[in-house]
Structures are given as structure tokens and as C-alpha cells.
Amino acid sequence: MFTHKHELESGRTSCVSQQIMGFSPCGEVINYTGVRTLSWKDVIDKASKVVTFFDLAGHERYLKTTLFGLTAHAPDYCMLLVGANMGVLRMTKEHLSIALALKVPVFVVVTKVDIAPDHVREQTIQQIVKLFKASRKMPVIIKSEAQVPMAAKNMANDRVVPIFYVSNVTGEGLGNLRSFLNLIPGRQHWAECKNEPTEFRIDETFTVQGVGTVVAGTVASGSISAGQWLWLGPDSNGKFLKVQIKSLHYKRVPVKRVVAGQAGALAIKKIKRCSVRKGMVLLDLSMRAGAVWSFQAEVVILYHGTTIKEGYQPIVHCVTVRQAAKVLGMETEVIRTGDRARVTFRFMYYPEYVKEGSRFIFREGRTKGIGKITKILDTT
Hints:
Blueprint: H1 5-10, E1 17-23, H2 40-46, E2 49-55, H3 63-72, E3 78-83, H4 90-101, E4 106-111, H5 118-134, E5 138-142, H6 148-154, E6 160-165, H7 174-183, E7 199-208, E8 212-221, E9 223-225, E10 229-233, E11 241-250, E12 253-255, E13 257-259, E14 263-268, E15 281-283, E16 292-303, E17 315-318, E18 321-330, E19 340-347, E20 359-364, E21 367-379
Helix pairs in contact: 6-7
């Protein structure tokens, strides 16, 4: 899905773009009528189930965008695309390791099977199977529609990895893939979060002429209605500002309310766009809003060329937060690839809103690690 002119010219996705697919009660895709492609509003109105796709960048140059998409949008599943004629590339392994580290269940779609010679396609499949077996997963090649219901049912346990062959030219395998997308259940139980205090994570900001500042993101808990007052922050000083919601959109459709698990766009009254950034949150007025400078975490080093010591400064990706952080202390003198350790981080430029139990990825060049926040140390 190309959004910008340079993406069309280069053939490379460089930003996070969205698309939806609607299914009828019979499991048929309703996006296309044969005459025209339905608008998002028409799809939402007619569909009994809607699947949202976030298209992430595959090129190494845009890895930070891919990391942001995986952490900020809380996907239920990861669809890994592999060209049958190209095989498993280094970035394929990179993206898979990130998805597995974030504990996002993965299924594989092998594309362009119509132009790949039989021996090349078989080699590609062998590479994929070997890759997942090394990760202690069970790859299953879906050859018939009879296998689809069981594959969809087993996705939730994050053990089975379905593999689909498809060709967009001949249509081979597309029916099985559509049936699978219709049958896979939602992995996260958002209904339990609807009655909790409101928390909205901001992952995009923009200005609409005649409307003003608009923020986009995901409702992590509670609900948001037009006219509601919320805390917005933290700013560069760690402060929160009381703001009012003017209007809301869900899937490009005007609505009166969005609830936990839904991604929406909110227009905020009397706020300049320069006052809002990615990583901020909107919180219920009943919550004690506070920003975090430093935190302690249990980390695992996925890859590092040499050793990590105190003073190391990677980029931390935690939900919608993306900022450089400095290693203040470790329980060991140095850590290397594969090591586990308890590490203290401190944000470099301004405090952020993070919580205990949150998972994060940190990176610097080809160095990557995964962590989980165990203790909040310094707050404002």
C-alpha cells in the first residue's frame, strides 16, 4: 500500500499505512462490488467482521518505522510476506525475530508462486520451515481449505505457524488466505478494559483545515466521547494539560464514541499541533498523571557486535514512545548477545509515559534487544 509519490517510484513502503477488509456473515469479502471499490464507511456498515491491515516497511532503511508499527498499533497477528522467487532474506529474519520477541503470533504468506521455478519455491519453503523450527515453532503448509479452520483455531496458542502459497496473478491460494483471515479470532480481550479509566496512546498528529489539531492512536482502556475532558501529556517538562475532545472518527467514519481496542482520530479544542507529539497519551481525569525519567527492566540482548556497558545509548521503542535512553547501571559489568540482565535506563531528552509490565525493544545500528519494565524509578 503506497501513500507517497516516492513510494510509488521506488516500490518501497516507507511509512505505516492502513487498509481494511470486510467480511459478510457468509465469509465473503465485501470490499468489491464488481463495479467499484467500496469506501471505508460502506465496508463498516455492511461487514459483520472487519480486519485491519497495517502495512509496515520491509527495507532495512525504514526499520525504525517497522518497529514503531509493531509496538504502537498492538497488532493481534503478524503476516510475514516472503517472495517465492527471492527466498528468506536477512531482513526477513530480522522482522521475524522482532515479532517473536514481542510475542506476536506469526503466519507466513509466500507470494509470486506463479513466477518461481519449482526448485526455487521448494528451496524457499525449506528455508522458512527450518527458520521456524529453530524458533521452536510448528510450521504447517496450508494446501487445502479443509486445513484452514484448524490452523485459525490454533493461532491463538502461538505455537503453530500456517504457511500459505499465493499468486495475485493467477489467484492461487487467495481463497484459503481470505477464509483464514475471516476465521482467526481476536487475540486481545479488549472487553475487559472497557470499564477501566480512559487511556489513549497517540501515534500520529496532523492538522485538518477548519478542524484544527487532530491526534490518531489506539484506545488502550476505557472509552472516549465527544465533549469529554482528558489529561494530555507529558510535555517536555513532564506536565499534563487538561483538554477537551471536539469530535471523533473511527475507520474514517464520524462517531460519537470510541472504546478500548479501537483506533481512532480525535480533534482537540484549542491546542496547537506543535504542542502534541507521538508518544503522548490522553488520560482520564481521575488518573494521577505522571511522567517517567528512569526505569528498571529485565532485558535480553538479541544481537550486539561486541559488548554493552554503562553509558550505552540505544533508541527505546515502548508502545508509542520512541526516544534515546542511557544505560545508568547493570547488575553485571558487561552484557553480550544472548545475555539476560537487569538494566536501569534513563530517557535522554524528556520524560515519557510508560508503565510497569510494558514490553519494549531497544536498538542502535544492528544492535537489538528486548525488555520488560519491572520498576519505575524517577517520576515527575
